[in-house]
Amino acid sequence: MPNYLPKDHTFVLCAYGESPHLADCVHSLLSQTTKTNVIVSTSTPNEYIRSIAAKYDLPLFVNDGEPSISHDWNCAIGHCDTPLATIAHQDDLYLSEFAEHVLDSMNQSSSPLISFTNYGEVRDGRNCDESKLLSIKRILLSPLKVRSLQSSAFVRRRILSLGSSICCPSVTFCLPNLPSPLFRNEMKCDLDWDAWERFSRLEGDFVYIPTLLMRHRIHEGSETTALIEDNTRGFEDLQMLKRFWPGPIAKIVNRVYGTSQNSNSL
Question: Exposure of 186 by Cβ count < 10 A (0-12 exposed, 13-18 middle, 19+ buried)?
Answer without folding.
Answer: exposed
